[in-house]
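Re: your question from the hallway

Yes, I did run it. Sequences:
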Amino acid sequence: MTSSLTASPRAASAARGGARRRIPVAPYLFLAPGVILFGATILYPITQAVQMSFFDWKIVGSAASEFLGLDNYVRAFQDEQFWLSFGNTVFYLAATIFPQIMLGLLVALLLHAHSPARPLFRVLYYLPVVTSWVVVSLLFRFLFADAGLVNFVLGDLFHLTDGSTSWLADRWTGMIAISALGIWKGVGWSMMIFLAALQGVPRTLEEAALVDGANAVQRFRAVTVPAIRAALAFVTIMLVIGGFNVFISVYLMTGGGPAGETDVLLTYMYYQAFGNLDFGYGAAIAVILTLLVFALSVLQLRLFRDRDGAGVAG
Amino acid sequence: MNRRTPRRTTALVVRLLLLTAGALVMVTPFLYLLGISFTPNAFVLTTPPQFIPESPTLDNYAQALEAQDIPRAFLNSLVVAIVSTALSLLLSSMMAFAFARFVFPLKETIFRILLVGLMIPAVLLLIPQFVLAKHLDLLDSYAGLVVFYVAGSLALNTFLLRGFFESIPAELDQAMELDGAGVWTRYWRLTLPLAKPGLATATIFTFLGVWDEFTWALTILNDPEIRTLPIAIRLLAGVGNNAVQWGVVFAASAIAVIPVVVVFLVFQRYFVQGLTAGAVKG
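Structure:
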């Protein structure tokens, strides 16, 4: 019935107005407020960030900013604290991404197969995702305190440690605590994405595989994995971006301490800009971080696309 | 048809045990938080930890509500979140309408540029946005929060709503146009009411995003009168580990988190829609 109606609203209005190729005004009016705000507060600051990174930027008073060329970037590459923050960021990525994907997928698979109480479990696993970073960061600072719950469970309950670890007072134990929060808060999110992707797997496919005598592992590899590949790509890329952007948990659990030992790129950038008022250097660190994230995202898209043949976007 | 063999039952039990163990890890910290919020400060961080306080008290809540000015911060957060969400929904639904219902030069180019906003990490913008806000005299003001919260949520909401609008049959639009309805009427009276689930999803995500936002507020706010809830809670917890009144911190945290949990429980299906819109299209 409706298939013959192919004319777009624009074509219809153009025909009625008599002017066939006139450019419509209405869409631009609808776009204007949002686009103007977007341009002024997002696009313009992007160019500003790049520009500032070439200057010794003065925020106070009317002092002239001094052009430094690439000095801020050279400085970063020679700055030990920058590399330490970079190392900690890489640690966080390595420690959080794989567990979030594996645990999220595991929970999704467990829930997918007609589990009783599935809605309840879904809510419980998703609860940390909807809770504010500030609250859970303070909560984990409390859990990892010297006399906190984590030491009690590991020491007094399971006797795995002597129960007196000062988690937040040392670089690597601090990073472990911060990463633990990252995993705990993120599992529910990847679970939800995988669960939605699994729902897209046609039951007939699974049944056909079953009839053909495929065992559980074969069915997982032949039916489930191809179906969730797009979701897998999406989750991985989002987690890499999120991992590079880790800030609030570090800021509130350790404050980058002791003595900057647990700084990540963002806490270091924040300290340089808003503690040291060295906006140019802070901007340079932000630009480096952005370029890194972009390069990694493109690389990952390529990787997933190549393996996939047809592409991720389906 | 009953295929419930012993092996199947075992598998089900194992699955439920695994799920329950995981769920315990997820929920225990929250239960502990609630427990501590009812515990007198002297009994916080005792060994063994008390999940259910021996002598429960409402003192922490009273302190959070009276001495520490949490109600003011709660109100600030509420107002900022409502205004930001309303403005963001208006602007982004207008943009989404243009993208979904019109063909015009530069359409996909403009849309792609908007999508850049989804990929740019907020931190790249933090420093220049701070400088911009300073020049516009927006530091330490509600407007400084609202303007940048709206801007930050435009890209995602436009992307999300465009998808919802495009799923509404264009024939409805054309029929209404033939009846002589103007563009605004078709947007306001036809598209928006039909896209209610999409609007609900965008509303919830935007509202909670603003409600929980910390970094921007931390950067531009000094004035205690304007503090939002995350900032006020962070100040309660101080910077060092000593002498923090954890009971009060967690009482204030519970006050901040409980509305979010209620919203989540009531509007669960919209959460799933919003999440999967990104994953499926991505």
